[in-house]
């Protein structure tokens, strides 16, 4: 079936199998491999993206459920003025580690700071509690998110404007 999903401010239309998961739609149909695929059982959080304004595990969402909705992936975090403070924080505080779970962690962090500009350590640990770190090094991730909160400057929560992937959209 044909779906249209706006990803990072750009509308994409694709003809897909109804059983296709959102994580595979992003990676295989759109080539956005920043969204990682770890467990496929809703345990690890590597696949977290935003569906509209809410972080979701994209391995538990069918792509057809995103039809007509907005998705934000790690590719949409940076703005025209450079890296998002969350990305900068992970760099400054060595929160990247192996990197596999970083995209999902950063999207959850962005969501948290948008909702709570001054999160406590407990707030941060609760927000990322559904996401595993294979390196088991949560301290630097928490420090990275705190750094981002302290350096955040009225960041736009959603990418500005919507463009259309014209070569792919059917008439
Ligand atoms: Fe989705 Fe692990 S791949 S939670």
TrEMBL record:
This protein's pathway: Alkaloid degradation; nicotine degradation
EC nos: 1.2.7.4
Keyword Hydrolase in record: no
Superkingdom of origin: Bacteria
A Pfam family reported for this protein in Swiss-Prot or TrEMBL: Fer2_2
Keywords of this entry: 2Fe-2S, Iron, Iron-sulfur, Metal-binding, Oxidoreductase
Keyword Oxidoreductase attributed: yes
InterPro entries from the UniProt entry: 2Fe-2S-bd, 2Fe-2S-bd_dom_sf, 2Fe-2S_ferredoxin-like_sf, 2Fe-2S_ferredoxin-type, Beta-grasp_dom_sf, Diverse_Oxidoreductases
Gene Ontology MF, one: 2 iron, 2 sulfur cluster binding
Domain (2Fe-2S ferredoxin-type): residue spans on this chain: 1-77
PANTHER family recorded: OXIDOREDUCTASE WITH IRON-SULFUR SUBUNIT (PTHR44379)
Name the UniProt record assigns to this protein: Carbon-monoxide dehydrogenase small subunit
Organism: Amycolatopsis endophytica
Lineage of source species: Bacteria, Bacillati, Actinomycetota, Actinomycetes, Pseudonocardiales
